[in-house]
Write a structure and sequence with these properties.
Strand order of the largest sheet: 3-2-1-4-6-5
CATH architecture of the largest domain: 3-Layer(aba) Sandwich
CATH topology of the largest domain: Rossmann fold
Shape: elongated
Number of helices: 13
Radius of gyration: 23 Å
Order of helices and strands: HEHEHEHHEHHEEHHHEEHHHEEE
Largest sheet: 6 strands, mixed
Length: about 350
């Protein structure tokens, strides 16, 4: 379970990072730090250098080419900082706006996918097993609120994972997830560092920015000064429970599965009928994710309807994105007629 958030005046940022690296057995690394030039990632880079030494820390900066001269100034700041610290730096430039227009997808989603894909690739190329990002407790609280407002289930309430594996070679770390933003800024002031500020974070047309600058301060001021700590505690507790729940669902799926029919997944119909309906729905989600089946159009209503149908005398069912289900003797057979979904590593 991630460490609880402490009041900012009690937080020693470098000490928190040291304890985090010990807790996840990082040893002396090396660690690749994603550095945008903003306060959070800059503080993380400095703390990692203080804890591990510059020879065990590498930095990576992706220039999204979204803010013209401002983006280039961010890149130059990171270059100068790494040179001062004696840290090896890898820089990449990508025209994220053009990629988003070509894919007709949300700009922020495209930027996130591109960023994590490149960071993971950079870590693999350098044979670095640990990739660290500068997400803080405030980021966690904002994420939980954002997902609540948008609508989410337990999975969404987990917020940002403290540590998770991107692939078999690279593990993603968030050492500052228990540190509040005020403590980060104090850490930088004490070292005479003035980090870059992303002007797009001030754009109140974006929901996340309105949460940061309007909703969260209102909740702190009018309702509970410790709202950030409470939202982080909620996310940590849900993550702990959800991990247990997913393990139970995976175990259930193993008991339900029979040998495949060609490439199709086959489940024992009687065992499915006897399964707990709540756990069955989660086992189906695990199945979809494992198989790489498209799931973006699968709503909570679809999962509930599917679980109910599997426990009924029905014979066939069509689901979104080309997934077909049919009864065959005493089994259920799942077939996917579309390409498996590419799942980029994201937070």
């Amino acid at each position: 379970m991630p460490k609880a958030v402490q009041p900012e005046q009690e937080q020693d940022v470098a000490g928190v990072v040291r304890q985090y690296l010990v807790r996840y057995s990082v040893g002396t690394g090396p660690v690749l730090v994603a550095v945008s030039g903003g306060p959070d990632s800059t503080a993380l880079l400095l703390a990692c250098v203080e804890v591990l030494g510059s020879t065990h820390v590498h930095a990576a900066h992706l220039n999204h080419q979204l803010r013209g001269a401002e983006s280039d100034a961010d890149e130059q700041f990171v270059r100068s900082l790494c040179e001062q610290l004696g840290v090896s730096l890898c820089v990449e430039r990508r025209y994220i706006g053009e990629l988003a227009r070509a894919s007709k997808d949300n700009l922020e989603s495209v930027a996130r996918r591109q960023r994590y894909a490149w960071l993971a690739e950079t870590a693999r190329d350098r044979q670095i097993a640990w990739l660290a990002t500068g997400h803080t407790a405030n980021d966690q609280a904002e994420t939980v609120l954002f997902r609540l407002l948008r609508g989410c289930g337990l999975r969404g309430l987990r917020g940002i994972a403290s540590c998770r594996r991107l692939d078999q070679n690279v593990c993603l770390l968030r050492p500052l997830l228990s540190v509040k933003r005020d403590a980060v800024e104090a850490f930088l002031r004490a070292r005479g560092i003035s980090a870059r500020q992303d002007s797009s974070n001030l754009d109140l047309r974006r929901t996340r920015n309105r949460i940061r600058w309007q909703l969260l301060p209102l909740l702190q001021r009018e309702y509970n000064p410790q709202i950030v700590e409470h939202l982080c505690t909620l996310a940590a507790q849900v993550e702990e429970y959800y991990d247990w729940f997913e393990r139970q669902a995976y175990a259930l799926l193993q008991t339900l599965e029979l040998p495949r029919l060609d490439t199709n997944v086959v489940l024992d119909a009687e065992k499915v009928r006897q399964a707990d309906p709540v756990l069955l729905r989660q086992a189906l989600r695990v199945l979809w994710e494992r198989e790489g089946w498209p799931s973006r159009k699968m709503t909570a209503r679809h999962w509930r309807r599917l679980a109910e149908f599997l426990r009924s005398p029905g014979h066939a069912m069509e689901l979104p994105d080309g997934i077909y289900l049919r009864r065959r003797l005493h089994t259920w057979v799942f077939a996917c007629t579309r390409l498996r979904e590419s799942r980029p590593s994201t937070p």
